[in-house]
Amino acid sequence: MKFITALIFCLTISSTSFSQYYARAGMEISYVSMPSLTDYLNQSFVQQLGTFNSAIVFSGEGGYLINNHYEAGLEIAYLINSYNFSSDLGIYKLSYDIIMPTIVNYYVIRGEGYDFKFGGGLGIRFVSANQQLPGTPSAITYSSTGFGLLLKADGNTLLSGNLYANIGIDLRYDFNGTPKNTNNNSLDVNNNTNINFNALSAGLRLGVTYIF
Q1: Which of 20, 29, 80, 186 maximizes the CB count within 10 A of its CB?
Q2: pTM for the complete prediction?
Q3: Are strands 53-67 and 70-87 parallel, antiparallel or unpaired?
Q4: Domain that holds residue 179
């Protein structure tokens, strides 16, 4: 609520002849490094994952063009990823998703039919993970809450009317914490290690922006 309140305040403190609202939607390929989780998977399930692994991110953003060079917005991104490993004992499954609301402030360079913007922000992170071990009938759910930092650059090119094609890149560092189940245990089946989901990621996004 504090983040949403701060955004509303930013959107209402200034009103100029340049003011406009915008909405953006897009899909992103993100390359994510989660060292603690990767070490756990590599050591426990004999699958050598790389330092960075791909994930899909869907995102939407809305905000306010306060003047020719400043925007304030709220982005909500949803990252999903999963792993499946086979062994003599059966199939190991792990899936996780992260909801990432972030308040973002931009410096904007605008021209006829295009704009470029560079910005950053921070927000809360909500993690949910499901782990199913070989030979078990169902998955166990784990969750945690953290926060994250975001740096990004966006470009918008006019398609028609108020609709723009959007391309963007971003860099995130998320302190996602250690997901725990209802028994306060982490993913480690031996309960020897608290496996955190802290992550460094970089992504490329395509989408559309509507300015009104």
Answers
A1: 186
A2: 0.88
A3: antiparallel
A4: 2-211
